[in-house]
Fold this sequence. Notes:
Helix content is 36%, strand content 36%. The protein is an alpha+beta fold. It folds into 2 domains: 1-33; 35-276, Alpha-D-Glucose-1,6-Bisphosphate, Chain A, domain 4. The strands form 2 sheets. Strands 2, 3, 4, 5, 6, 7, 8, 9, 11 and 12 form a 10-stranded antiparallel β-sheet that branches. Strands 1-10 form a two-stranded antiparallel ribbon. Strand 6 and strand 7 form a beta hairpin. Helix 5 crosses helix 7 (250-276). It is globular.
Amino acid sequence: MSPSTRSIQTLYRALWVVAALSAAQAPTLQAFQFGVVRMHEDAAAAFAEYVAAADTQFQRRLAGDSPFLWGKQDQARARALARGKIVVDPTPIRNTRESPGGLIHDWTGALLVPHADAERLVAVVSAYDTHADTYGPGVVRSRILERDGTQMRVAVRLLKKNVLTAVLETEHTLEFDRLDSERWWGRAESTSIREVVRAGKPDESLRPPGHDRGFLWRMVVFWRFADTPEGAIVEHRSISLTRSAPRGLRWVLRPVLDGLPRRSLANILGTTSDAAHLP
């Protein structure tokens, strides 16, 4: 095959990708390729098993059986943090894992925030009554439903927008607590995620949990905060369950699905840092 022929084929493949991504925004293909699906029980079970293993890892960090900070475990990550970079990597070994009818995403991000302390960062992250102001437009509205000591139950309306757009009405249980004088931790778990149909319209409605377009079915988040001589480090590990990419568009959309958690974590950490420095 000549170089010119390979170039032409590469060009046509690139054009096909662009056309497919553009077409994915069309209502007809959206309805066909991203129609309502039901979350498979095996996918939910696989996610629960995965989170149980992550909880064990998290407890080992809190107990001191493994390093508290993920960002300090790797020299390259530690150097990047020292330079003020937001570090986001797949955890523990892969960014996604196939499960029956679903996809498990597992990413961890870290950031060193100069001139801030861990307690201030915890205050920003746990202030759910103001999350729409802090983390908008991805957070449309949020409120604390119940508070009992270190534990909370919150309601959050999320806007997820990439190739397609989804509005999700969610509820979560959370706990934030101090580990010692220099370290804090937090854990959040979704208890209800429902896709909103015709969001903001008079006839707005909610789809049943686990019976929607599958943009987000489950989510568990782990937080770690630590004071250091250079400032406070905040770490965020997010594990989520979504539908698998539709057949036919899987090779096109899989990089998009994989990239969403990376961008989301980087945005959350950067926004948290900015909010911590506000008066």
